[in-house]
TrEMBL record:
Protein known as: Zinc transporter
Main subcellular location of this protein, as a coarse class: membrane
PANTHER family recorded: CORA FAMILY METAL ION TRANSPORTER (EUROFUNG), ZINC TRANSPORT PROTEIN ZNTB
Keyword Hydrolase set for record: no
Keyword Membrane attributed: yes
Record's GO cellular component terms: plasma membrane
Subcellular localization: Cell membrane
Membrane-protein topology: Multi-pass membrane protein
GO molecular function, one term: cobalt ion binding
Length: 330
């Protein structure tokens, strides 16, 4: 199988038996394949492979327009209805590949009709593996429409896990800020949480609209209760979007609270420095005045002059302290 993937770009080809299971077929089996009445076909390609692109354009039976759209470099979540009750579905999934940012979501492009699903991806996507495992266990999709639902459900489940992780990290930071006055939340971490929430929200908003469209516009080859499942997926995404928006607001509140604490600490510091400066200013004036080297300084010839000067400075300090207490500055 790895050799075939490298040569053809075919990740897997499955014939659904209509009872939750499937059998694998090879690249060579696809042209001569004949489906039984209850069977459906799901083919999953690596779109970066030239052989996969060539098959899509020359042997899939799809129009040039459909092939061009499926092979676009940059896409966003959207739904295109085609003649003959066919559709194109572009979804995004959480990027769980090594050294990747989760909010850098992976694109899944899907063409589907009543008996056939053709999906393409550029980077590995765990959600397709989930559906594949379900089929191998005999509890997977039974029809082409259920393959779409299975893929969408697996994608949404990964979003749920990531949103929970973001909320948990934010809870930890909020708890530390509330319990430890000296703790300063790392700004880069907080900004990273906000960036991830914003990145996820950017793709999930149109994806939620796709699920709503599939709820409202039921195709003839959908199973009877498919619209209920699409509606449930739409509601789940609404909840995740609300939680992501809440994460962004909570991050802003933590940053604002930390900024307020820093301003308060700075104000207290400046206030204390101002008090100390004001307290020592008169004494600095006296010592500076008495320290000039000119004639006529009072007490310069008096053996008790230094003691008298110290007593005078002490009296000024005590007088200032009384005034500051009366003004409630100290």
């Amino acid at each position: 199988m790895p050799d075939e993937i490298g040569r053809t770009g075919l990740l897997h080809a499955l014939v659904l038996n209509g009872h939750g299971g499937a059998r694998r077929i090879t690249y060579a089996d696809i042209p001569s394949l004949e489906l039984a009445e209850q069977e459906s076909l799901w083919i999953h390609w690596d779109r970066s492979q030239a052989q996969a692109q060539a098959w899509l354009r020359n042997r899939s039976g799809l129009s040039a327009f459909v092939c061009d759209v499926l092979l676009e470099e940059n896409t966003r979540p959207r739904l295109l209805s085609l003649p003959g009750d066919e559709l194109l579905l572009f979804l995004r999934g959480v990027n769980l590949n090594p050294d990747a940012e989760p909010e850098d979501m992976v694109s899944l492009r899907v063409f589907a009709d009543a008996r056939r699903v053709i999906s393409l991806r550029l980077r590995p996507l765990r959600s397709t593996e989930v559906v594949l495992q379900q089929l191998e266990a005999g509890i997977g999709p039974k029809t082409a429409s259920e393959v779409l639902l299975g893929l969408a459900d697996a994608l949404t489940e990964r979003v749920d896990q990531l949103v929970a992780v973001l909320a948990e990290k934010l809870d930890e930071e909020e708890d530390r800020v509330e319990t430890d006055e000296r703790y300063t939340p790392p700004q880069d971490k907080m900004l990273s949480l906000r960036r991830q929430a914003a990145g996820l929200r950017r793709f999930l908003l149109p994806q939620r609209e796709i699920y709503s469209q599939l709820t409202r516009n039921r195709l003839p080859w959908f199973v009877d209760d498919d619209t209920d499942y699409w509606n449930e997926l739409s509601n789940r995404l609404i909840r995740y979007l609300e939680e992501l928006e809440l994460v962004r607001e909570r991050v802003n509140l933590v940053l604002e609270a930390e900024e307020r604490r820093m301003r308060e600490r700075m104000n207290r510091t400046m206030y204390l420095l101002g008090i100390i400066t004001g307290f020592f200013l008169p004494m600095s004036f006296l010592t500076g005045l008495l320290g000039i080297n000119v004639g006529g300084i009072p007490g310069s010839e008096n053996p008790y002059g230094f003691a008298i000067a110290c007593a005078l400075i002490g009296a000024v300090a005590f007088f200032q302290w009384r005034i500051f207490r009366r003004l409630k500055w100290v």
